[in-house]
Structures are given as structure tokens and as C-alpha cells.
Design brief:
Layout: H1 9-21, H2 26-42, H3 52-62, E1 66-67, E2 73-74, H4 82-93
Antiparallel strand pairs: 1-2
Length: about 100
């Protein structure tokens, strides 16, 4: 469905930039972001819950990421790092995963 949204310029620039870095169309990026927000609101995260071993693995993996000036996390190994996406899917399954600002591909 086509729709028109009036969004802040800075937000659109950040979204376009991240979508381009991920090699994705902006429409896919925005649709996924809206879907994640809907899922998050339906299933609020439970702080401190989850598998401690997986949480430690997340912290080790997260240390590989670079934080960009706009606050987003960036995988310097690029979009072809399949282990990144496998780990991301596993982390999202944890109750605390959606609360960590984890972006998707």
C-alpha cells in the first residue's frame, strides 16, 4: 500500500543513510522498523531475563560493532557477515534482545 508520511528531515536522512549502508531500499527499511516497533509494543521486554550465556555472547559480539556518531551500531565486517545475521536472529529471540537497539538487515 502506498502512503505519504511527513517525517523530520534528520530522521529521513538517518534512515536513508543506514538503508544505503545495508544495501536495502528505504521502503524495506521503514516497513521493517514499523513492524519491529509493533512487535516490541505487543511484547514489552523484560529487563534482566534471558539466558546468561547468550547475554555474555551478545556482549562479546556487540564489542565488535562500531558506534556511529548518530548513535547507530555498525558492523564493520559488512552486510556479507552471515554470522552477524544468525546471531542477530538468535538475540532477537531473547526477551531482552529488542530492548538493546538491535537493528536488522
Amino acid at each position: 500500500m502506498k502512503t505519504t508520511l511527513d517525517l523530520p528531515d534528520a530522521l529521513v536522512r538517518r534512515a536513508k543513510s543506514l538503508a544505503a549502508r545495508q544495501g536495502r531500499p528505504l521502503r524495506d527499511f521503514v516497513a521493517e522498523a514499523i513492524n519491529e516497533k509493533l512487535v516490541d509494543s505487543a511484547n514489552p521486554p523484560t529487563a534482566g531475563k534471558g539466558n546468561p550465556a547468550r547475554r555474555d555472547a551478545w556482549e562479546r559480539w556487540k564489542s565488535r560493532l562500531q558506534k556511529l556518531p548518530d548513535g547507530l551500531l555498525f558492523n564493520p565486517e559488512g552486510i556479507d557477515d552471515e554470522s552477524f545475521f544468525r546471531s542477530l536472529d538468535e538475540i532477537r529471540a531473547e526477551p531482552w534482545g529488542s530492548a538493546q537497539g538491535i537493528s536488522s538487515r
